[in-house]
């Protein structure tokens, strides 16, 4: 290892070695100087040495040397002049990029030159064998040998710079710039493997930064500038990941952004959040997570509507339509039905994780968060007004699929709407952060939803249907696709159907027979039918023994019901206890398995770490021993050369060590340095004497040469001045001759000029007159046009006013007619209410009289008769027509006034309005008088007083009971 008194000497030595073509020796010399502990203090010369050093590293593609040198230079200038390190790193990256671009420009096929899966992997053995045995010659092979190494070195340069700047708070901007350039490198050359490694490197840097908080010069993430740089880096990472279609890496980048914000407890700006949610929608759509995709679209719409004031109405309408269609594209059935407990727990944890990413909750509380669902999303869209911003086609589609019941026409009405929706979309304006919206991507999912809705509605109406008929009703898919969709729906208990290919029919099951609505409906129908049966065929009265049993029967039924309920509760408790025990057992087994797996993984990690540390220590010791052995050999050889050159005895046979050799070398160097200094001092004195003597001899000669030069320059100046005067005189004489020659043509020129001017003036006057005439004609035509337009406007306004007056008069007339109809209807209703009240009063009086008469009859009967028809002939009630005006006696039926009027041949006053006279006729009273009181009493005893009153009270009720069945 060479030592230098000053850093400048090392730089000169390196330049000398470069001039003679020994670049490796020059690089080694500069490397020894940079890594030496003698030059740890920063100075300007070290910066120039570093520039030369990185140039050599780039020329020779020595990435390891460059990394070691930059690390040592960072230690030297970290606290003194950190901007110097920034300049050196920028120069290093610029040189690497230029070399890579230069190599790329030499290749005609960049894709073939970069056809390498991994830039960090060594050349495979099969590739080496193929290169030897194949005849690959020419450009393909040269490109692979020239271009790929430079791109490997450029990738290594980015990694080196990121590793050096990862914990430097003063060079955060340079760190971010390097990361962005590395991202662009991966994007430009489609390097997916390197992009994944780059994301992992940046992720580890942030993790270490958060882990070791007490490090010196550590970046402070609570600072707004630092946080913005880290955020910009993550968002650039997210954009490049989506452009490279690395969707898993894009999702991890989204998690990185959320984790960074959770670390500092701060929400980014709305402009960045728009990019965040836009990329989130792409990731969820690619992963077929339609529910999460719809939630991300809704958050994006909310941000755009709230913070983007320059957004046009058309763009907002397209975004709202995308939100609604994304929500409709979610499958309507629950995929968790029938899943195991472990799967449900994993699904719940996944939903909470995704919900935190979508809502951007920096302090999530899982116990207070509700899971994402399709129904809650649709209700939230309606409540937030998203539906009102969507296009009319999307609104109609939503109404058809979610609120209409059209089992036969649903697909026919949905198909034209989908054809219109598929044509909507396109690029948005520059004011929107979302570049493009295409509604056609939701059409396949909407078609599947329409198919499911149609099958669901058809299953409610039909029990069987032919396959051909169903295929005609669904124009979106063929029957094989419909069958596939239906199988998925049946598996998740959304439908109950079977396909019989032998009979070519479809059988719909009774999935909803046990629902509460249908069970209540059937129960109500059974009760109504039972009541109707009792009214048509009343039960015959049983003996008193049944009446004795009935009270105890209710108690027995109640006790039996309670016993069954208790047994049911016991069974349910046993089932719950058994399920709980099974769940606990599964949970214990799972925890035991996870614990065992964790212990095994920890043991494996410890073993691997111990082996790695052991190998690392062995390698370090081996390298140290090899290095010491090489240094000892070099010192020994140098000592042998010096001893041979100076005539001393070689020390080859002596038993020496590295320490003794170093001491001898240092003493020899010190002695040589002292001798060299003495020689230099002697040489300097000699050169001083010689230089002084030369200058004393040269002084007189220089003065004489100066006087001679003055005389020569004076003669030269006079000669050049005389030449200029002669040339000027000659040019003047030539100009006079040319003037005399051209003056003869002056008169002809003036005549020609006059003719041209006169002709152009005449042409100008003629065109001016024509222009004035055209202008006057246009002015006259425009006046006539304006006059006709004014007349037309006046006529249209007059006609509109006339039509408006007619419309107002018609509306006033209609309002007056409606008001008069309303008053008449109110008066008529009041009269009807009054008549009905009177009728009810008469019925109540009639019931009271009937009750009194029945009590009187029952009190007088002593022979045990139970029916009025069995009374003696002398005790039966007489017709009321003979005592219409007298006071009614107990036990007799008294007709109302209007019936007495009918029996006497007089119609009631309001018979026209009620229609009693036209429906009943005068023969009704005669038929009643012919039937006699016996028939009335029999009917009363069978149906009770209320039914008898309704049948024989007369008036509107009598007419309704007799004429209603005939009207049906």
From TrEMBL:
Q: Name one GO cellular component term.
A: eukaryotic translation initiation factor 3 complex, eIF3e
Which UniProt keyword terms apply here? Coiled coil, Cytoplasm, Initiation factor, Protein biosynthesis, RNA-binding
Where does the record place it? Answer: Cytoplasm
What top-level branch of life does the organism fall under? Eukaryota
Q: Which residue stretches, if any, does this entry annotate as coiled coil?
A: 561-700
Say if the entry is tagged with keyword Coiled coil.
Answer: yes
For this protein, the record's Gene3D superfamilies field holds: 1.25.40.860, UVR domain
Q: Which GO terms describe its biological process?
A: formation of cytoplasmic translation initiation complex; translation reinitiation
- Compositional bias segments (type: Low complexity): 954-968
The annotated regions of Polar residues compositional bias extend over 928-940
Q: Which InterPro entries match?
A: EIF3A, eIF3a_PCI_TPR-like, PCI_dom
The record places domain PCI at: 316-513
**PROSITE patterns according to UniProt:** PCI
Q: Where is this region: Disordered?
A: 718-782, 802-968
Belongs to which family? Answer: Belongs to the eIF-3 subunit A family.
Function, as annotated, reads: RNA-binding component of the eukaryotic translation initiation factor 3 (eIF-3) complex, which is involved in protein synthesis of a specialized repertoire of mRNAs and, together with other initiation factors, stimulates binding of mRNA and methionyl-tRNAi to the 40S ribosome. The eIF-3 complex specifically targets and initiates translation of a subset of mRNAs involved in cell proliferation.
What is said about its interaction partners and assembly? Component of the eukaryotic translation initiation factor 3 (eIF-3) complex.
Q: Which HAMAP family does the annotation name?
A: eIF3a
Tell me what this protein is called: Eukaryotic translation initiation factor 3 subunit A
Recite the lineage of the species: Eukaryota, Viridiplantae, Streptophyta, Embryophyta, Tracheophyta
């Amino acid at each position: 290892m060479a030592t230098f008194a000053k850093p400048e000497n090392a730089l000169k030595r390196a330049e000398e070695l470069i001039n003679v073509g020994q670049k490796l020796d020059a690089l080694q010399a500069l490397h020894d100087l940079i890594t030496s502990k003698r030059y740890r203090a920063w100075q300007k010369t070290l910066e120039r040495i570093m520039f030369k050093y990185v140039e050599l590293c780039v020329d020779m593609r020595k990435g390891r040397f460059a990394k070691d040198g930059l690390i040592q230079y960072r230690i030297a200038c970290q606290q003194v002049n950190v901007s110097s390190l920034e300049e050196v790193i920028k120069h290093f990256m610029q040189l690497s990029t230029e070399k890579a671009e230069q190599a790329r420009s030499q290749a005609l096929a960049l894709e073939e030159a970069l056809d390498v899966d991994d830039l960090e992997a060594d050349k495979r053995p099969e590739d080496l064998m193929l290169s030897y045995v194949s005849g690959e010659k020419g450009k393909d092979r040269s490109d692979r040998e020239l271009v790929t190494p430079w791109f490997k070195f450029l990738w290594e340069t980015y990694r080196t710079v990121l590793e050096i700047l990862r914990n430097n708070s003063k060079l955060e901007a340079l760190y971010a710039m390097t990361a962005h350039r590395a991202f662009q490198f991966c994007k430009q050359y489609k390097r997916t493997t390197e992009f994944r490694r780059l994301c992992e490197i940046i992720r580890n840097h942030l993790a270490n930064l958060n882990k070791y908080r007490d490090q010196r010069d550590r970046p402070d993430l609570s600072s707004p500038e630092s946080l913005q740089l880290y955020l910009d880096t993550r968002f650039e990472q997210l954009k490049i990941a989506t452009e490279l279609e690395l969707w898993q890496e894009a999702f991890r980048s989204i998690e990185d952004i959320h984790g960074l914000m959770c670390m500092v407890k701060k929400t980014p700006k709305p402009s960045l959040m728009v990019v965040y949610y836009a990329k989130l929608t792409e990731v969820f759509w690619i992963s077929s997570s339609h529910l999460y995709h719809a939630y991300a679209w809704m958050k994006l719409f909310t941000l755009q509507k709230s913070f983007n004031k320059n957004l046009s109405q058309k763009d907002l309408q397209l975004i709202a339509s995308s939100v609604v269609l994304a929500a409709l594209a979610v499958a309507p059935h629950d995929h968790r039905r029938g899943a195991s407990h472990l799967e449900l727990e994993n699904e719940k944890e996944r939903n909470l994780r995704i919900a935190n990413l979508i809502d951007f909750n920096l302090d999530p509380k899982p116990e207070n968060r509700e899971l994402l669902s399709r129904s809650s999303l649709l209700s939230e869209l309606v409540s937030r007004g998203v539906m009102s911003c969507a296009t009319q086609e999307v609104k109609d589609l939503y109404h058809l699929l979610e609120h209409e019941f059209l089992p036969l026409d649903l697909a026919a009405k949905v198909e034209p709407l989908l054809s219109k929706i598929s044509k909507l979309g396109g690029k948005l304006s520059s004011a929107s952060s979302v570049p493009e919206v295409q509604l056609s991507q939701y059409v396949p999912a909407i078609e599947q939803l329409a198919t499911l809705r149609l099958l669901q509605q058809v299953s409610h109406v039909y029990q069987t249907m032919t396959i051909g008929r169903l295929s005609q009703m669904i124009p979106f898919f063929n029957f094989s696709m419909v069958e596939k969709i239906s199988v998925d729906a049946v598996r998740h208990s959304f439908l109950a159907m079977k396909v019989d290919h032998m009979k070519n029919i479809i059988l719909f099951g009774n999935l909803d027979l046990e629902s509460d609505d249908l069970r209540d409906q059937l129960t109500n129908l059974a009760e109504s039918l039972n009541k109707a049966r009792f009214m048509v065929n009343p039960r015959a009265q049983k003996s008193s023994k049944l009446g004795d049993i009935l009270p105890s029967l209710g108690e027995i039924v109640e006790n039996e019901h309670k016993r069954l309920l208790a047994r049911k509760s016991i069974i349910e408790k046993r089932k719950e206890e058994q399920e709980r025990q099974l769940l606990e057992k599964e949970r214990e087994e799972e925890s035991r398995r996870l614990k065992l797996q964790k212990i095994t993984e920890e043991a494996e990690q410890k073993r691997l770490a111990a082996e790695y540390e052991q190998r690392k220590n062995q390698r370090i010791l081996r390298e140290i021993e090899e290095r010491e052995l090489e240094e000892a050999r070099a010192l020994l050889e140098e000592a042998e050369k010096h001893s041979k050159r100076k005539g001393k005895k070689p020390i080859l046979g002596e038993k020496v060590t590295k320490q003794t050799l170093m001491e001898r070398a240092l003493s020899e160097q010190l002695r040589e340095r002292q001798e060299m200094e003495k020689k230099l001092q002697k040489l300097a004195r000699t050169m001083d004497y010689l230089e002084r003597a030369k200058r004393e001899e040269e002084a007189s000669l220089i003065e004489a040469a100066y006087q001679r030069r003055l005389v020569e320059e004076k003669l030269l100046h006079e000669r050049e001045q005389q030449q200029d005067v002669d040339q000027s005189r000659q040019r003047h004489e030539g100009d006079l001759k040319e003037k005399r020659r051209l003056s003869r043509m002056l008169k002809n020129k003036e005549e020609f000029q006059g003719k041209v001017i006169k002709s152009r003036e005449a042409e100008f006057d003629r065109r001016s007159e024509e222009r004035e005439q055209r202008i006057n004609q246009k002015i006259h035509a425009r006046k006539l046009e304006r006059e006709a337009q004014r007349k037309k406007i006046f006529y249209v306004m007059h006609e509109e006013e006339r039509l408006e007056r007619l419309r107002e008069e018609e509306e006033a007339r209609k309002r007056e007619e409606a008001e008069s109809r309303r008053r008449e209807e109110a008066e008529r209703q009041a009269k009807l209410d009054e008549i009905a009240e009177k009728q009810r009063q008469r019925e109540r009086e009639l019931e009271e009289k009937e009750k009194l008469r029945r009590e009187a009859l029952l009190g007088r009967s002593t022979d045990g008769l139970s029916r009025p028809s069995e009374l003696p002939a002398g005790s039966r009630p007489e017709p009321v027509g003979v005592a219409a005006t007298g006071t009614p006696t107990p036990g007799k039926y008294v007709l109302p006034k209007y019936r007495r009027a009918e029996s006497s041949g007089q119609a009631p006053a309001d018979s026209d309005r009620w229609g009693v006279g036209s429906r009943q006729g005068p023969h009704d009273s005669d038929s009643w008088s012919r039937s006699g009181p016996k028939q009335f009493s029999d009917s009363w005893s069978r149906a009770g007083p209320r039914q008898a009153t309704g049948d024989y009270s007369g008036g509107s009720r009598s007419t309704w009971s007799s004429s209603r069945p005939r009207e049906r």
